């Protein structure tokens, strides 16, 4: 019961932190933010690892395989596509910086 | 608690902190990319910690590890390939697919937590309740997100799909899912009941998204993102893993806020979108353009628009869904660059929900190398319209409908771009058809407005050619 309460406290506080952090993000960046938070829920792959360590039956192996496949698609794809989107946002910034900095580039 | 367990706890805390810091860095375009990398660093720590912890504490069977590695390779290759090749206009579908796999993955983890301990002694309530909730939410997210992605991609009709008695069927399936869930908890680990929850929730996900119109699909994607977060958090409760709980809660909060903001910007309540209200095909009064409306419309050619733009000092471009649908972001950027080179001040006025997901238009313009300093958000844009010579509205409708300031219609109270405050307005649109709110737009019949009826891409190419001739002559 104590574990449950500790976890519940963590859950509620993380929700509040999430609300606070996300509210500050301008609408310009809502697409990469959504895709970035999408990648974060790929952490479920850690759950797949724990499932693997507990599995010793065919049903367990199958569930491990399913969980690993789905979670890996989420986590790898999520981070790669977010980086691709954000790369385009930083590109014009770099070019304007190089024109002002001049000698630096 | 052993020293090793303490170390694992500290590393989980570090990875959770990196997720928060990473998200926080996404508040400015200049730091956002680093933020994503910081978040990815947190992910690496969380996964490596879990692998080491699992190997040391329980070991596990080699077949299970082979299944894990095989699955991770398969999923990873699929995910990375999709992420590398997706067109920027199709990002909403991909996000939806990643929601689906995330929710499905969480459901599978919870299912395993239920099945693997075996029959001895039954399962405690502190585990069975989050497991049932996870299987329920995760499965709804899995099937619902795939349907939403299908609608956005056009594989499934964007029109609301309903059948007689749909609502009764929905309620029935929901009751079956809930009853089976309660039974699974009471019976302390009844796998059959959990399978019933799984199947009912999968059906429920399909039934929930099918009646939702394509224009509302982005809101649903955002809502399902929040659902996935909650499912992952529930998986964390089920296997007592704090990394999953914290990350899941963060995503749950993010998705919820975005859903609410987006619904507000579209002037809809989340409840009415889910239950299906206006905009889902039912006829709305005063929908089509009347004959009188058409008589008042001033039609322009590409040459007219080119001259108007070349003579202007301040131009504001209002890109809308039509621009995204025609994939004309590169053409508009080319025209803007040409005008800027000619000494015209050109900026973009971007509505929060322009495009197919929140902030999507900014991504499309960034793809076409538009510096983000040129993209004005709602408030800044509305201040700029007062000093604007030409407002160039491309494939946008409801987001600049002045009727939003009047009470008593479908867009009343919706935050809009004040394009009608500009000295003159040019609207590029394929026809006079009403936007998705289904009402006519007085901006189009305003005496200072000229209409160019064409596909966004063709129209912009035509205007650019005309401006080039005009400038060189």
TrEMBL record, chain B:
Report membrane topology: Multi-pass membrane protein
Q: Where in the cell is it found?
A: Cell inner membrane
Task: Say yes or no: keyword tRNA-binding present.
Answer: no
- What is catalysed by this protein? NAD(+) + NADPH + H(+)(in) = NADH + NADP(+) + H(+)(out)
In the record, what terms sit under GO molecular function? Answer: NADP binding; proton-translocating NAD(P)+ transhydrogenase activity
Record EC number: 7.1.1.1
Q: Which residues form a coiled coil?
A: none
Q: What Gene Ontology cellular component terms go with this record?
A: plasma membrane
Domain NADP transhydrogenase beta-like, by residue range, is 10-464
Give me the segments passing through the membrane: 6-23, 35-56, 62-80, 92-115, 127-148, 168-186, 192-212, 219-239, 245-263
InterPro entries per UniProt: DHS-like_NAD/FAD-binding_dom, NADH_DH_b, PNTB-like
Q: Which UniProt keywords apply?
A: Cell inner membrane, Cell membrane, Membrane, NAD, NADP, Translocase, Transmembrane, Transmembrane helix
Q: Where is the signal peptide?
A: none
Supply the SUPFAM superfamilies for this chain. Answer: DHS-like NAD/FAD-binding domain
* PANTHER family recorded: NAD(P) TRANSHYDROGENASE SUBUNIT BETA
* Family that this chain belongs to: Belongs to the PNT beta subunit family.
**What is its biological role?**
The transhydrogenation between NADH and NADP is coupled to respiration and ATP hydrolysis and functions as a proton pump across the membrane.
Q: What is this protein called?
A: NAD(P) transhydrogenase subunit beta
Q: What is the lineage of its organism?
A: Bacteria, Bacillati, Actinomycetota, Actinomycetes, Micrococcales
